[in-house]
From TrEMBL:
PANTHER family: ALKYL HYDROPEROXIDE REDUCTASE AHPD, BLR3452 PROTEIN. It comes from the Bacteria. InterPro entries: AhpD-like, AhpD_core, CMD-like. Keywords: Oxidoreductase, Peroxidase. One of its GO terms (molecular function) is peroxiredoxin activity. Residues 25-106 form the Carboxymuconolactone decarboxylase-like domain. It comes from Roseibium album. NCBIfam families: ahpD_dom. This is Alkylhydroperoxidase AhpD family core domain protein. It holds the Pfam family CMD. SUPFAM superfamilies: AhpD-like.
Amino acid sequence: MAVADWEKFITQTDGRMAEVRKGAPDTAEGFAALAAGAMKDGALDAKTKELIALAIGITARCDGCLAYHARASARLGASREEILEVIGVAIYMGGGPSMIYGSEALAAFDGLTASD
């Protein structure tokens, strides 16, 4: 899916995920704990982990992953050049589908940093 407005997409997805959190609170809490544990600074810093997550989102063809991890990468100071290198690695690992979703990831990053 080509997302035209990434901020709107995140807002819409946040609302949908809120419904899941209400309906499956134990699962949602477990997922949140998993995310917090995986993304905290350790041998790798949070920005590096977000860039890895973005690459996985590209290869998994997950629009939500692109939106959230592009935004988090931007907030953690990732440059457009770093995003492009991540896209290159994802294309190498994921082939043609990653080329398509890599371009979507760049659109997400650009769309979410346009007002910065």
